Amino acid sequence: MEDPWKEAMDHAVAVARKAGAVIRDALQNEVKIMCKSSSVDLVTKTDQKVENLIIASVKEKFPTHSFIGEESVAAGHPCILSDNPTWIIDPVDGTTNFVHGFPFVAVSIGFAVKKELEFGVVYSCVEDKMYTGRKGKGAFCDGEKLQVSDQTDIKKSMIISELGSNRDHETVSKIFSTMQKILCIPVHGLRGSGTAATNMCLVASGAVEAFFEIGIHCWDIAAGAVIVTEAGGVLLDVDGGPFDLMSRRMVSANNKTIADRIIKEIDIFPAERDDAVKK
Fold this sequence. Notes:
The chain is of the alpha+beta class. The chain is about 35% helix and about 25% strand. It contains eight helices and 14 strands. Helix 1 runs antiparallel to helix 2 (about 45-60).
């Protein structure tokens, strides 16, 4: 049976490459910075330009589809996942990296139908690596099949996470407390690339055993969620319950044994859901 979303996925790969070229070009030129929620929650003209490029390209090809985009939501558009085919876009995942020239920046495009993720595309544009995942058809990097690590011993594992953009003292204390507890299990190491989409692809490729974070958004992880699961990995809430794309909290791991061990150490703090109704 023909894949009903193959054309959409092929288009996502093509437009991610175009977007990546814009980002690489911008890295060579002046980066104009603005702030969103705080002085450390950054957005650039490139974020907005790339999101507009992706949405315009998709609208032309698929005029009835819906969108959730990081910059659109920041501008006041609702963050609602409906049954309609929906593109979930982070135009520049790793904006702070981009601003500083730190070489991990990704274009992330997830695609959901009837609230179920169907495919994900993550283009790590400085590395020029194209990660793809299609529900039921596997995950790949530049055409090579991805498989998560088979490690089940947490003490032989590499874990990846992020500090996020929240600078509330209590929140930061909980983030560091969690990292300290995990590091002292002990694990082989604790890393962070500065982009959630890339972190999830590193889980999928077997380079790290797990990625966890509270405070991420649906556009950071929608594409990576498909790539991780199609590479044989698992997704859970930080309390051990089922993964919820809109909850802004997640553990992705090579297997449930590693995920459950990490969950034991996480100090949970509140993060408003992406689909919360703004008053």
